[in-house]
Design brief:
heterotrimer, A alpha/beta (403), B mainly alpha (352), C mainly alpha (290), B: 352 residues, mainly alpha, ABC transporter involved in vitamin B12 uptake, BtuC, 2 domains, two-stranded antiparallel sheet, 2 strands, 1% strand, C: 290 residues, 11 helices, 74% helix, globular
Amino acid sequence: MSTRSNVLIATLAALLAVAAPGAFAQKMYDSGASDTQIKIGNTMPYSGPASAYGTIGKTEAAYFKKINDEGGINGRKIDFISLDDGYSPPKTVEMARQLVEQDGVLFLFGTLGTPSNTAIHKYMNAKKVPQLFVATGAAKWNDPQNYPWTMGYQPNYQIEAAIYGQQILQTKPDAKIGVLYQNDDFGKDYLKGLKEGLGDKAQKMIVAEVSYEVTDPTIDSQIVQLQASGADVFVNITTPKFAAMAIRKAYDIGWKPVQYLTNVSISIAAVIQPAGPEKAVGIISSAYLKDATDPQWQNDSGMNELRAFTKKYLPDGSLTDSNIVYGYSVARTMVQVLKQCGDNLTRENVMKQAANLKNFNTDVGLPGILISTSATNFAPIQAMQLMRWEGKQWVRFGQVISK
Amino acid sequence: MRAIGSWHVPSLVALVAIACLLPFFISNYHVFQLTLVLVYAIALLGLNILTGYNGQISLGHGAFYAIGAYVAAILMDRFGVPYWLTVPVAGAVCLVVGFLFGLPALRLEGLYLALATFALGVSMPQLLKYKPFEPWTGGVQGIVIVKPDPPWHLPINPDQWLYFFSLGFAAAMFLLAWNLLRGRIGRALVAIRDHPIAASAMGVNTALYKSLAFGVSAMYTGIAGALGAIAVQFVAPDSFTILLSISLFVGIVVGGLGSIGGAIFGALFIEFVPNLADQISKAAPWAIYGVFLIGLVFLMPMGINWAIRLCWARIASYRRASSAQLRSPITVSAAPHRRSTGDAPCPPEAMS
Amino acid sequence: MEELLNQVFAGLATGGIYASVALALVMIYQATQLVNFAQGEMAMFSTYIAWALIQAGVPYWGAFFLTVGFSFLLGVAIQFLLLQRIRGQPVLALVVVFIGLLVIFNSLAGWIFTYTIKVFPSPFPAEPPFGQHYVSAHELGATAVTLVLIAVLWAFFRFTSLGLAMRAVAQNPVSSRLVGIRVGQMLALGWGLAAAVGSVAGMMAAPIVFLDPNMMSGILLYAFAAALLGGIDSPGGAVFGGFLVGVLENLLGAFVVGNELKLVFALSIIVGVLLVRPSGIFGSVQVTRV
């Protein structure tokens, strides 16, 4: 052939070589994804005993609306379908099936509650639908070997309790520990972690383990029991309402132990204020998110963005509710994952990208706490920092501790 | 029951035919929902035997549902018992437990019995979480159950198979109840409900019948619980709170006390109306549910079943009246309920 | 010993809350022969109204009496608009109506006021009286309020003609009507009074248990048990039952079975007592003539 046609063929070949990967990297969708939208499913306890957590779902919905208003992700709007399961596992199963089989969502995200998520754990993995960033701190969500479609989010309760256990061993090795815990998966997981953190000294050091039910009106009796046991360290594993009651009662009966409080109840306006800020002085806890009412984040840019968002998209939301910061953080992480997916919106790729977060900063996490995942690590946040209540704000101390 | 009328048999056959064909025309998710409706219907039938026919109020039947569910789960998960065997065993266990509970309950009437059963319903989750029982019950984590596959390589999927499995049980339990209640036992139960003193004066062994009613009703609810556990594939203490007992109670009142058909209407109500309410209002769905409840009681205070019967009876009496008018100027109007010895329980009067 | 005293006093304090709600339950029973399962939620809703008033700047006692008045009207409204229309229907249907009211009030409160807990102020001083640390001034004050309420109600039913008329209507509406008593008005009055008592109970409880939509559900169970334990037709019995249940619950949890089985045992004991005295400790036994 003539040189001219050789060149022509060569150019065509070159063009094809460049265009071909592009042609093969075309859009790939699973059910729920299309050129214009991404359908995400979620279940939350909007009614029933755990209804206080419903704010998380509302925050997530508001955040996705904000993203949609700003043009969506890669040009696609998010259709966030959040259903009420009343914290009842059979209802969660029903709602999850509706979302996956009826509404055809791409994946489930941020489903709340350990029993609720346990109920759909096998189903989601059998159906190969991602169960992402579940809103529970149980340890079992980080198991990519056996459950490759499920991923947790927050530092799990056992890790946090183990950190407290270690701290007690370091600062007060002869302590007598009294534990107050909620009689459900949350409380029992914590207790387990605490005992692991104390190692073989657990048996000797823990002098009282006292539980309560979510349906109990007050826990005054439990606090009195703990005081009577002679404990001088108090590990307070309670949800916000009961945490406030416990802190107040302990102070009122004149019991002054070194108190460790779970991260779930560190909200200043939902726990510390009702209990009485002067009654909470000295309490140690840990955190991985910033508190929106904490004066030290007055001029923080990430928190300012959160405050502006809350003002515009969550007008009845109160910044005193730490659930808002949590919901905001998870939603931002989700948006990052979807951005990384690009045009490949298959369930497999969503899972792959979720396991491919490298030091992602949500802007509302504490300094030094970033989100990372990998194929063998399905625990996005594993670091926390200890802090102490000093009368007007939480003051962090020590290093950021990770697993 | 009332003597089978000429229209009863064809309509029942049609109903059964529809029930059998339906799963092949609807999605798996809806099949799952209908399976739950069948499960609730069996539970409501049990509760109706106790409260509707026998007049003993129970606000804690969720406890028997929980016992049935856990028996099935423990047998399947810890002892490898095949799923189809666990359901009758759960029924048997609940029969005994219900009877034993019914014995001391004989001393209690009305409100006080309501409290005792309420206490049972409220205590159940705490009992299920109790530490020494954990190796069996799985504690707060619960027990995960594997979904059974259709047997004999039938060309249907597991959801459809579970539906037919539950349908079979439901049909059997309904037949059993119909048989039980239209004969001597049913009359004895109703007599005890309406006038206990007269009943015992006539020689009815009230104590035995009342305890048996508890036992049988618990058995039904236990069977429902076992089927429900297999359908949902998971049991945990949080699945069986007092809300379940209240839902069952609401179900029989809305469906129609003292009727067998009421169980189905009630089951449809408690399964679908909460979802409907959720769709109407995301902000306060249970407020909508409450409005539905109150509205239904206003419109049909005796429950859906009796409201429908009343409608049919009125239509029948108009027909009779208009055909009688053709024959004679004197209008004959038939009363909607005709009590005779052969006829079945009428809706309960104001129960105290 | 110290712990025993602490537990007993803590039990009396919680028992005071149960007693006041039990009183409201008995009140409604005395007036209408029905147990109002929505009593707790109505009380909670009223407390939220009080909270909203206080947030708007109304001083405590102003908000208190305004709320009591509002609750009275709410009770009267429920009787006239709702219950009047379905009087005479089977009792169980009425119970379902109460359950409906329960979920409506609960859901509305959650929607309007959100589920985050709120602090409700107490009219009593913050310092514990007499320098001791067993009971706070509020707990003592709340108990005193309950006892005063009970005395006032007892006097009302016993010595006033209005109270007599209400009792007559509850026991025999037909004869009462024949004698000339306006049955509907008496029932409405009964409902209003019960709702008002409930709102006081709510406002006394909220400073202790914090205000949230689910505040009353745990309390209602024990209040119901207490009312029946004491005898559903005896206001004094209900209050006694409340205190008894509070102390019993604490002592069981602390010394006998531990907190994991406290609920089960407390309820079992109550049911056990009922088996021995099926009408409650102070209740009047119903005797039926054959």
